[in-house]
Amino acid sequence: MITNKVEYLLLTLVDLAARRDGEYVASREVAARQGIPLKYIPQIVSVLSKKGWVDSMRGPKGGIRLAVDPESVTVQDVIDTSGDPFLVKPCLGPDTFCSRMASCPLRGVWMKAQEQVANVMRGVTLADLVMRLGEASKENP
Fold first, then answer.
1. What is the DSSP string of 101-128?
2. Are 35 and 29 in contact (CB under 8 A)?
3. Do residues 13 and 27 touch, judged by C-beta distance below 8 A?
4. Is the pTM above the cut of 0.85?
5. Which of 35, 66, 84, 97 is 20 to 30 Å from the Cα of 16, by its Cα?
6. Where are the beta strands (DSSP E) in the chain?
7. How many C-beta atoms surround the C-beta of residue 43 within 10 A?
8. Residue 96 burial (CB < 10 Å; 0-12/13-18/19+)?
9. How far is 74 from 80, CA to CA, in rounded Å?
10. Does the pLDDT at position 135 exceed 70?
11. Nearest 5°: CA angle at 52, between 47 and 54?
């Protein structure tokens, strides 16, 4: 399942990637635009800053801005960074034990589905999401 944390990370990155001016923007403004609760923004910015994807600056003209090329970050990268793996079925997790694992008739299906989902997530970049955002705004003025 995609967690709120992953969604908030992605929404923050997309918001920053959509800004063409490269100027710093207040994180609370990003939170307001994206519907992210203010209490989560410090955690989100911390994760993104530690990864090097976001620069932050304090002060009256401070805020946050994207620090990487939007083409270089995939949805899967963000999922991996969050620490919240996206699993089709919990039994596919690395630390999960299931007594039926060796004989489960469904495991192969779940594994194939997991690989397909991972392929999609690896194939979508922040730039792709920004492009889709632009297309959606043209369709819904």
1. TTT-SSHHHHHHHHHHHHHHHHT-BHHH
2. no
3. no
4. yes
5. 84
6. 54-57, 63-66
7. 12
8. exposed
9. 10
10. no
11. 75
The answer to whether 65 and 45 are in contact (CB under 8 A) is no
Q: Let me know: does 122 contact 76? Beta carbons within 8 Å.
A: yes
Q: What phi and psi values does residue 57 have, to the nearest 5 degrees? A: -145, 135
What are the extents of the domains in the chain?
A: 4-139
Query: How far separated are the first and last CA of the chain, in Å rounded?
Result: 31
State the Cα–Cα distance between residues 103 and 6, nearest whole angstrom.
33
The 8-class DSSP code of residue 57 comes to E
Q: Which CATH class is domain 4-139?
A: mainly alpha
Query: Can you tell me the distance from the alpha carbon of 66 to that of 50, in angstroms, rounded to the nearest whole number?
Result: 13
pLDDT 10s digits, 106-120: 988 999 999 999 999
Quick one: tokens of 58? 């304090």
Distance CA(81)–CA(21), nearest Å, equals 26
Write out the two tokens for 124: 């979508």
Half-sphere exposure in the Cβ direction for 103 (13 Å, CA): 2
